[in-house]
Amino acid sequence: MKIETKLIQAGYNPKNGDPRVLPIYQSTTYAYDSSAHLGDLFDLKAEGHIYSRISNPTLAFVEEKLAKAEGGVGAMLTSSGQSATLLAILNICSSGDHILSSNSIYGGTINLLSHTLKKFGIEVTYINQDDDISKLEKHIRPNTKLIFAETISNPALTVLDIEKFAKFASKNNLPLFVDNTFATPYLCRPFEHGADVVIHSTSKYLDGHATVLGGAIVDSGKFDWTKFSEFTTKDESYHGIIYAKDFKDAPFITKARVQLMRDAGAMMSPLSAFLLNLGIETLHVRMQRHCENALQVAKYLDNHKKIVKVNYPNLKNNAYYDLCKKYCPEGGSGVISFLLDGKKDDCIKFMDKLKLAKIVVHVADLRTCVLHPASTTHRQLSESQLIDAGIQPNLIRFSVGLENVLDIIEDLEQALDF
Ligand SMILES: *Cc1c(COP(=O)(O)O)cnc(C)c1O
After folding, report:
1. Burial class of 83 by CB neighbour count within 10 A (0 to 12, 13 to 18, 19+)
2. Is 0.70 surpassed by the pTM of this model?
3. Does residue 382 register a pLDDT over 80?
4. Is the dihedral of CA 72, 76, 79, 85 positive or negative?
5. Confidence at residue 128, expressed as pLDDT on a 0 to 100 scale
6. How far is the CA of 201 from the centre of ligand 1 (A)?
7. Which position has the higher pLDDT, 374 or 124?
């Protein structure tokens, strides 16, 4: 199946007389006829649902769809993008370990890596993703466990050279984790370029309607996890199973579920999974229009005298244009950022004048919205961290929705006249 078909048809496959549409299994628990059967489920000898903190049928169908859309072997939905990143990292890192991350990533992820994981004894080094492998390699340590980056970064809109990073990672026997939130599996499938684990904030384009928070971890099934002792030694908390041996096909996602989700309980609710699935069913159609509208808005802003610079990877004058064409040939997604000719106060004046575009702490849904990162989402970052993350004080992030693009441009036109 092609990606568009998978987004609609993969996962839930009704049998004779079943509901055509994915049902919401709003149940915490599952009934069994014998204790022996339930015992086998606990031993992971039989497949089935035990308790909705670990798995649920509604979620399982959406997980299968996402895994197929990304071209992976398994997926796990989580309560948010943040919990997906946290659980994916904790699946292989513990106290004393080290992570290499691109410095061009989401501010919330920087908080998680720099502060919360530090309390767990996990250290992070930020790297410039545009550096050559020889330069990047200098940051690898004996205790480095993984490399982390975003396909199209939020909000700097850099595009990752996934193949370069995959080469860098595999040369050093490390897995490459890619947050594919902005690109979505419609525009880019990082596994096709050598990534090992994909992370999503499903709260963005996958849902697409700004209705449900969620996240996902997707396992490519390609990385050799036997290099990590967590996968080759007995899990005492799961009466001695060895993930790389007992779950050879998808050890990463199995461990994330039966060990970490069991303990953390950062589960998505069945109703959220149902709503997320509705979003995923139209992802390809929406992304096409997001990309078209964003390109037109980017071109308009690029020609406006009050705009110093427009960042949109699919603009010909953008530093990431070639990488965008390579990894996201269908378009550059729907988010633009730009530098207004002025100070922080001018940004606020301009934003307050917008009518159709609302000021919200969100991006990547069907309603055009706007945000000033330096005074909101990224206000915890120091001046130098802001610059590293590509965020100047006069930077505005503009998430182009699915309205008629002429209305979006008209709104910008009147707001820029301040
Ligand atoms: C929003 C976002 C996250 C965090 O996701 P939540 O669902 O808000 O927890 C992570 N990565 C990227 C790229 C994001 O845009």
Report:
1. buried
2. yes
3. no
4. negative
5. 97
6. 4
7. 124
